[in-house]
Amino acid sequence: MRYLKHAMALSLASALAACGGGGDENETVAATFQTNVVNVSSQTVKAGNIINGVAEFKTFGPTIESVVWSVMATTDSVGSLAFSDAECESPEINNRDVSADKKSSLWRCQTEISAPKGSKGNFRVFATATDSNGNTAKDEILVTVTP
Question: What span is annotated as the signal peptide, if there is one (predicted)?
């Protein structure tokens, strides 16, 4: 399989926002897919090729507990996509204490997203992170596979 020259990256950032004057905090999540630091919502790849995927997740407060890659085929697609590390078994993790009771957490997860020969059509690729409070952040990109 050939590697494409460009890499798809996913950045998910979350920040905590204080609720109406009290001490309670709720998580607000902002998410974007990026290629070379330019936001993208779709990617095209020829069947038999690979996209290098990178997911970065940031939190302030809770820590990231897991990252999972998944795919959903649209009705016009044939075959599927595959991930070399769908469960993010070897993430780069940077947790640091910000205060006595708060942490800043950064996970960087890399995977190869392959489009096997014979596959074609549109596929929705998701990266989902779960934090220590059980909150999830998800983003997606549309991957179009051409013969």
Answer: 1-17
> How confident is the prediction along the chain (147 residues), in pLDDT tens digits per residue?
333 333 344 433 332 222 223 333 434 333 334 333 345 678 899 999 998 888 888 888 888 888 899 999 998 899 999 999 999 998 988 888 888 877 788 888 888 899 999 999 999 998 888 888 888 888 888 899 999
The answer to whether 131 and 65 are in contact (CB under 8 A) is yes
Going by CATH, does the domain composed of 2-17+26-146 fall within 2.40.128.50?
Answer: no
CB 34 within 8 A of CB 40: yes
List strand residue ranges (DSSP E) for the chain, in order: 2-18, 25-35, 38-39, 42-46, 49-61, 64-73, 82-83, 92-99, 102-115, 121-131, 136-146
Whole-angstrom Cα distance, residue 11 to residue 65?
16
Q: Residue ranges of the domains in the chain? A: 2-17+26-146
User: What predicted TM-score, i.e. pTM, was given to this entire model?
Assistant: 0.72
Task: Report d(CA 115, CA 98) in Å as an integer.
Answer: 41
